[in-house]
Amino acid sequence: MKCPFCGDPNTQVTDTRENEDGDVVRRRRRCVNCDKRFTTYERIDLKMPHIVKRNGNRTEYDHAKLAGSLKLALRKRPVTVEALEAAVDRIEARLLSMGEQEVPSEKLGELVMKELKKLDKVAYIRFASVYRNFADVDEFSEVIREVQTRPRRARKGGAGQPDPEHDLFGN
């Protein structure tokens, strides 16, 4: 590390401390040449990949935009802020683990849909309807069928007839 006062490259570390979270290291240094002291900070510098849009344009990854998209899909849904933030963290971790400098927006959209499907099926359908830009009702119906947890059973009494084993309250 060069001395900021005289430019000499010979400096010594006199003290090293981590912050409470352990993600920043503070170092006190002394210049061997001019004997002046200064502080440096060392922190992780992770580079998120650029996002390649469908039209070929490239844009920097935007944490706020990703979180906003999930918030919009989850609007008025019973999902905690902590669950939302955890989903954003998982998406970002996945983007970083790819090790790519650029990621297609389609891949980011699929990661978002995967997280939304785990969080809330209604939010998943909301996001999918905009993201996939459904051309007709059949495409929309297919996504709904995809998230249904159990197939519907035919009632014993036939269509429109009450099931003799269950009353209106499922008893």
Automatic annotation (TrEMBL):
Negatively regulates transcription of bacterial ribonucleotide reductase nrd genes and operons by binding to NrdR-boxes. Keywords: ATP-binding, DNA-binding, Metal-binding, Nucleotide-binding, Repressor, Transcription, Transcription regulation, Zinc, Zinc-finger. Pfam families: ATP-cone, Zn_ribbon_NrdR. InterPro entries: ATP-cone_dom, NrdR-like_N, RNR_NrdR-like. Residues 1-21, 151-171 are annotated as: Disordered. The keyword Nucleotide-binding applies. The lineage of its organism: Bacteria, Pseudomonadati, Pseudomonadota, Betaproteobacteria, Rhodocyclales. GO terms for biological process: negative regulation of DNA-templated transcription. Binds 1 zinc ion. PANTHER family: TRANSCRIPTIONAL REPRESSOR NRDR (PTHR30455:SF2). GO terms for molecular function: ATP binding; DNA binding; zinc ion binding. NCBIfam families: transcriptional regulator NrdR. Its cofactor is Zn(2+). Residues 49-139 form the ATP-cone domain. A zinc finger (unnamed) spans 3-34. Belongs to the NrdR family. This is Transcriptional repressor NrdR. It comes from the Bacteria.
